[in-house]
Structures are given as structure tokens and as C-alpha cells.
């Protein structure tokens, strides 16, 4: 699903104009980025957490020049899904893999 598909689905289900849904979604993304860049984590109950993880400094390699490169410590954004969210996805996985006759087959999800 692309962002345009998400906007269309939300607009269809809520009756809110697509332009308003787009503005709200873009504002949400902007707030998530700004909060994480300030070092603040975002916790959404039942959905998950947007957090920052610290990466330790390490030595990398520049394979073109065959030299060692120092990579300093840095933070990266990450998403940690809530238990309820993980449970729903796992349940979907099991439901999709069992066909009507009871044999296990991988159902096409796309």
C-alpha cells in the first residue's frame, strides 16, 4: 500500500475530504520526525512506539580504497510495534496460510 492508497482508504471510510486527510497525515509524519530529532520518543497505545536507538561507534571499511573508516556513535529512528499489533499480524499470517480445504498453502497477500 502506498501513501496515496492510505489517503484514499481513510477518506472513503471517514467521509473526510482527501485534501484534509493528506494534510493531517503529512502533519503527523512531520511531528514524528521533529519529535524523534529532538530525542523524544512517541508512544501510541495499541499501535507501537517510535523510538531512537543509539548505535555504538565502530570501524568500517571503504572497499574502493581498502582503508579503515571510523563511524562515530549516532542515533537511528526505529519502530517497535505494540503487543496487540503484533498479535493481529500473526493472526492474519495464520489465517492467510490455511486454505478452505484445510491444507496449508501460502495465500497470495498482494
Verbal overview:
By secondary structure, the chain is α+β, with helices and mostly antiparallel strands. The protein has a domain of 39 residues. The protein is 43% helix and 26% strand. The chain is built from three helices and five strands, in the order ααβββββα. Helix 1 crosses helix 2.
Structure, briefly:
With 110 residues, the chain is of the alpha+beta class.
Physical arrangement of strands within the biggest beta sheet: 1-2-5
List the total number of helices: 3
What is the N-to-C order of secondary-structure elements (H for helix, E for strand)? HHEEEEEH
- Per DSSP E runs of 2 or more residues, the count of β-strands stands at 5
Main beta sheet, described? 3 strands, antiparallel
What is the share of helical residues? 40-55%
Mean pLDDT, rounded to whole units? 88
How far the N terminus sits from the C terminus, by CA atoms, comes to: 9 Å
Radius of gyration: 21 Å
Percentage beta strand: 25-35%
Structural class: alpha+beta
Unreliable segments of 5+ consecutive residues: 106-110
Relevant terms:
5 strands, 110 residues, two-stranded antiparallel sheet, three-stranded antiparallel β-sheet, alpha+beta, 3 helices
